[in-house]
Amino acid sequence: MKFRKKPVVIEATQWFKDGDHPLVRIPAGEEADTAAWSENLQGLPKGSLGLIDTLEGPHFVTPGDWIITGVKGEHYACKPDIFEMTYERVE
Question: Bridge partners of 78?
């Protein structure tokens, strides 16, 4: 069976740095240690990861990720290439 997503209008903000989205925070404490480890794996500069709380728990966001507000007000991150394939701008 095949299915198509229902057309739904979402709110989204692209995140690049601290302050771009009010719900993205810079990891601190133990989260910062995990962030530093993750940045090394991804080749990102130290301090370039953000963290957002989602329904599944905290998720790291990297510069360029989209922060989406879902249909029930939930928030989650989406990589730019997936966002581009899935969404188109509406006015």
Answer: 66
3 part of a folded domain: no
Q: How far apart are CA 19 and CA 83, in angstroms?
A: 21
Cα distances (angstroms) measured from residue 26 to each of 31, 54, 62, 87: 9, 15, 11, 27
Q: What is the mean pLDDT of each run of 10 residues along the chain (91 residues)?
A: 89 94 91 85 85 93 95 94 93 78
> Three-state SS for 80?
helix
Q: Report the alpha-carbon distance of residue 15 to residue 62 in Å, rounded.
A: 8
pTM of the model: 0.84
50 within domain boundaries: yes
